[in-house]
Give the backbone structure.
Amino acid sequence: MSLSLGYLLPTRERIMVGVHETSEILDLSSHADNIGLDSVWIGDSLLAKPRHEPLALISAIAGRTKNVKMGTAVLLPMLRNPVLLAHQVATIDQISEGRFIMGVGTARDVPAIRNEFEAAGVPFEKRIGTMLEQMQLCRALWSGEKTNWEGRWTVKDAELAPVPLTKGGPPIWSGGGVPAALKRSARYFDGWFPSGPGNGNDWSKSWLELQGYAQEAGRAPDDIVGAAYVTIAINDDISVAKAELDDYLASYYLRPADEIRDQQYSFAGDRAAVTAWLNDFVKGGAQHICVRFTGSDDQKQMDELARMREQW
């Protein structure tokens, strides 16, 4: 099985050190395209973890790259009006010539994210049902047919243009590892894109469970992409790598590192150990892995990721 490797662009990390300009991010996306990485990814947060707005930045990336795919890891669609979101995404899919992947999530239940939802005027407790209806409405609008909708939003005799280049709209990937999340991905989405907890063996067990849910829903499991979002630190000195991972997670989330490690796929070690750890995902059936590195030399890390592809 061929593996696609993607790189999480450091939008949050740049804001954390006071760099608000986008030129470095755009240059990194071009470098990823030039060295043949499969994808670049951008996270999303309105106020909880401030960063660049992902759809605007992805649009700029789409306009200056030719081959690399680009996606959201992950977008919180609940913070956006779905009609506007459908319009934005259709335009991005045209600009990128079908290279956009729409990763979506339901948000972790922590105070900062609850405050973010409140600031956006969105009920946090209704977020899952809101997201599912949003994605259904987006797909209806992307069809190019006249759309009428009665639900959380009212749409009358609407015809969205442009339609996406990808027929029916870009692929939508959703994460989560609890049974309800696995069932959602199996029934409604084009890919499963979790961020933990555990390791490749844990991912594989959930992947097999999801495939069973897909069959129950009358879908072919092969129609769903198995993906993962992981955080890694690489250093020949393993103790340094582990310290770097802990420092990164604690400063990024403002919570204890061991708490975050228990929630997300993360690993620190030398190159051989990291490659072996990632290989457990591949052996379990993962087709696409988005890697978030903990260091500060992003171009060097991209080059390392491109070299690691040679292991598969």
